[in-house]
Every structure is written in structure tokens, then in C-alpha cells.
Design brief:
Layout: E1 5-12, H1 16-27, E2 30-37, E3 42-49, E4 52-59, H2 65-73, E5 76-83, H3 87-96, E6 107-108, E7 112-117, E8 127-132
Parallel strand pairs: 1-4, 5-8
Antiparallel strand pairs: 1-5, 2-3, 3-4, 6-7, 7-8
Length: about 150
């Protein structure tokens, strides 16, 4: 399994209204998407930077996993997203190489099918695999795909 590219880097922030302009000044990135993902109790903002993206994640509930992460680590790197052509093939290949998945199977994310690897199997880094919506037949017009992100 070889990723096509690094799709995005995600950073947990306390306040998107403050963080977006700060990261835009730092990177020159343009705001591409901002939305609440109710299923994950977060609000995300994607800044387009060249051919990659920076994802800013802010918890919307004090009992969400992202809120717990923010409480423990402060504003910090959350995960690295790797784009793959076929997520099912990638999962199979990575499991055969000894990597462990958090999710038992892919789920719908904000931009396609996603799965997270357990950090204990990646040297401590949370890694997300993402197969973009345009690479998943029939998912381009699926409204659920736009409402469930990590």
C-alpha cells in the first residue's frame, strides 16, 4: 500500500474564529470548507495550501474525543491524513504488515471513506487513511458523506 500523497494535516484548536485567520496569515492558505460535523461533535475548517490542506478541528462538546485530546495536549497536531486510491486494499495491506486499525472498517468522513490507525502501531502518531469521494463510485452525491468527519 502506497499513499497517493499526504492529503492533510489536522490540528486541534480551541476557537476556530481565532485560529483560522492565524493559520491563514502563517500559511497563506484559503478557507475551502468550514462546517459542523455533528456525528463527531466537532467543527472543522479546511485551509487549502498548494495541493494539500490543513484541517483545523474544534470540539463542539466537552465530552467528545477531540475535547479530551485538547484538554490533555492543548492546541496541537492531531493526525496526518494520507490519501489512498482504494481504502479496503490499503487496510488489508497495512494489517498484513502488522498495523492496527482503530475503526473495524471504513466509515464516511467529510470528503470520502476514512479509517484511523492506532497510534501504538505507528510510533505514536494518529494516521487517517482517506479515499476521497471522487474516487468512490456513487458517493459523489451522497449527503451523508458531507456530514460525518473524524
Amino acid at each position: 500500500m502506497r499513499p497517493e500523497r499526504v492529503d492533510h494535516t489536522a490540528i486541534v484548536v480551541r476557537d476556530l474564529d481565532e485560529a483560522i485567520p492565524r493559520w491563514q496569515r502563517l500559511t497563506g492558505g484559503k478557507l475551502a470548507v468550514r462546517k459542523v460535523v455533528e456525528s463527531q461533535a466537532v467543527e472543522i475548517a479546511m485551509l487549502a495550501i498548494g495541493d494539500s490542506q490543513l484541517e483545523l478541528i474544534s470540539p463542539q462538546s466537552s465530552d467528545s474525543g477531540v475535547a479530551r485530546y485538547l484538554e490533555k495536549h492543548g492546541e496541537a497536531l492531531h493526525h496526518v491524513g494520507l490519501r489512498v486510491a482504494d481504502i479496503d486494499e490499503a487496510i488489508e495491506a497495512l494489517i498484513s504488515e502488522g498495523f492496527a486499525m482503530i475503526d473495524p472498517r471504513p466509515r464516511q468522513g467529510a470528503h470520502g471513506r476514512i479509517v484511523f490507525l492506532k497510534p501504538r502501531s505507528t510510533g505514536g502518531v494518529l494516521v487517517e487513511l482517506i479515499q476521497h469521494v471522487d474516487a468512490v463510485p456513487g458517493l459523489e452525491n451522497d449527503p451523508q458523506a458531507a456530514d460525518s468527519a473524524p
